[in-house]
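Section 4.2 – Deliverable D4.2 (structural model, holo form)

The reporting period included a commitment to supply a predicted holo structure for the target in complex with alpha-L-arabinofuranose. Inputs used:
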Amino acid sequence: MTKKLLFLSALCLSAFSGLQAQTRLNLDLTKGVNVSPKLYGLMTEEINHSYDGGLYAELIRNRVFKDNPNQPEGWSVVQDGDSKASIQLIGADPANVPFDQGRNAINAALTTCLKLTVSQASGNRAGIANSGFWGIPVTPSTTYRCSFYIKTGTVNFPRGNRPDAAPPATAVTEDGPGIINISLESTDGKTTYARGTINLEKSTYWKKHELTITTAANIKPTADARFVISSTRTGTYYFNLVSLFPPTYKNRPNGNRIDLMQMMADMKPTFLRFPGGNFLEGPYLGDAFPWKTTLGPLEQRPGHTGSWGYRASDGMGLLEFLEWCEDLKMEPLLAVFAGYSLRGDHIDAGPLLEPYVKDALDEIEYCIGDTKTYWGAKRAADGHPAPFKLTDIEIGNEDWFDRSHSYDGRFKQFQAAIKAKYPQLRCISTIESYKPDKVTSVKPEMVDEHYYQSAWQMEEDAAKYDSYDRATSPKIFVGEWATREGAPTTNLNAALGDAAWMTGMERNSDLVERSCYAPLFVNVNQAGNGQSKAWQWDSDLIGYTALKSYGSPSYYVQKMFGSYLGTKVVPITAENAPLRKPAVKDTAGISHWPANARRPKAERPALFFVCTQDAKNVYLKVVNTDDMAREITISLKGGDVAANGTLVVLKGDKPEDTNTIDEPTKIVPVTSTITGLGRSFKHTFQPYSINVIKLSKRK
Ligand code: AHR
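Output (structure tokens):
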């Protein structure tokens, strides 16, 4: 009996100690492949109001009145006291301008304008108001740059017997010239935050006016504001290209929002993939990113149909993308339109594709050609004589969607022309090597792979690149990826999935040369005040309104991984690495799985880790996706480290925890000093945590 008891307790003890088996990570500092210096970058496109109503600092929505041919979206009429006024879109459809609306275009780009008719004023103001992109941000002691085109009437022209000529409108007393007021004010018009004036001459010719207005030091920041141009006299007034800029990053004219630029700078990105994404392609063949009409003065930019349900102003044009790169010390990674559009049309390889290839060569020349080249000279004329640096060119975007199977030929034609002129450039294929339509007629030097998955899928796939055959695989560019949990920005569970996935990319960065999360930006405004919901894609990295911005937990993962990165991967062998079963939520809500749908495996790792080093430091990253703390013994081979190091931890109480515009810092990394480090040390990693330990090498 006693013997039996002893045996049973021994069994229990061994089972218990088996459960508790110490997890060990053995780091070998003597070996390791190089870390790609371009491993972490940014991906951007016009989605979720990333530029208009986002990074691009312009505050006026629909500044050239082309956003909606049926109504002047973003604009309203102001009628104070007993003043009477109306507004009307003029030339809304540039291809079919009624005779009585003619002769108001500024040029071929600015064909539509807004007419304000003030029929009664008697000292009260009447005017036009713009509500911005879900409000206009007003902050204390801030100087705004305003500009707009205005005129007081239309050049008269004999109407003759034209059948489409409308009868003359009821005459309005034309006493329009004089002072025009400009103000930044509360949406109810009761509080004025900043004001200015211009002196308007009576003229049927367009004139541009520019001025600055400054807010007082004691105002409370708000986005509940509007921009108003008004008159206290009757008359007809025409407006076009109305613009209002707050201070911008590095004070660039036509520049970017300071807060968002700083958030990106903090991520230490090494490149920027642009202009898409779907935004590169456009719904129809004529809607591809029109880089040529995004250059030069704003007066020359008509804007174009976007890919995400709204028009793009193209204030963020090709040069602005390149300067954004320059400001953040990133290398541009240019994607060129390759003859496939989102609704499925394509251009056959061969002579019909040649103009598109030529257009891509021109675009590359604009970026890197010297000033003796046609497009290099144009860049110089636009204010940037020095060429930018390009290494890789992406040919199209997600061309595996092209059911005509034409990408192989299109890629080959683009690559041949680009290589002939720029042998140093590498061309990136947009079809993964494991997909049926992959490029086969030539070997792409790099392939763009996209992954949008749940956290459990990212965690299951974290070791994906460990088994890629280095001898046969092209270099990998993970040009779009994200763990899609949480909306509009991701939650902690997504951040855990991201971090797990990133350990795999970092460990394999001899193969995975570049990667960038997508989408980068989201304007988080819901529908309201006559404006629709601002975003089209859930699970984004950085959220904002007109006034505020915040990082998702995923943003902080990006920042941690980009900030603590060595130049060589340190191989790790793990002992007793724990596994975990799928969480209930991994399958919750899925009552019927489609036949080929992927289901979670019975078990997946609970911990994910990667280590890199440079001459001075070792950077160990450990992700604990589990709901329990894990103690790990860490041993170093081939080097010693100081007893004190730096610990950065991003964690939360539950996977659903997140940051929002109103609670922006619930989940943020905390940096502290960690002690007791050496050739072998123990550390307990908190539940649901992403950790970086920076160890200083002893000489
Ligand atoms: O990132 C959002 C979209 O996802 C991109 O525009 C497209 O390339 C992908 O399908």
